[in-house]
Amino acid sequence: xxxxxxxFKFIMLMTVLTGIAxxxxxxxxxxxxxxxxxxxxxxxxxxxxxxxxxxAQKFTDPRYFWPRPSAVDYNTLPxxxxxxxxxxxxxxxxxxxRRSRLAVADSAPIPVDLLCASGSGLDPHISPExxxxxxxxxxxxxxxxxxxxxxxxxLIDKYTEAPTIGILGQLRVNVLRLNLAxxxxxxx
Length: 188
Prior knowledge:
Strand content: 5-15%
Radius of gyration: 22 Å
Order of helices and strands: HHEEHEHHEEH
Shape: elongated
Number of strands: 5
Structural class: mainly alpha
Largest sheet: 3 strands, antiparallel
Strand order of the largest sheet: 3-5-4
Distance between the termini: 77 Å
């Protein structure tokens, strides 16, 4: 009986420590030192939530830069990859459909991140190459002249992020931030 009582006390202590105290401590530290991230890295304008810089948004209008494809149609609840392997006919068909949708007249090679979904299906970034690839489509849809296209090119450069701490990942462009900046240019 004494052993059972000791085990029960230990379970209660560990439940309080790991189930209550530790989560509260980590939540408090996160909110204190990383408030923006702890709140979901939301982009807010005029009190209205426009999206999260950590989760891809679905853009299909040719006037906007498009994110990576999503195996879950940008739904955050069942996020994940398609789990289709390189020999999958379904994956091949999806990539061919994306390729024909993205193909441009100059037949430039399409960056792979515009053809294949990310592991989470919610990656908010594309490569700078993917942004540059889409430049002509966006500029044509917005009927931009040469000077405005230069501004658009500088926006891509402005929103290109370096690898985390200089070594983790690669150069990337946050699609939502780029599209919001594009909208903020007004007439463009």
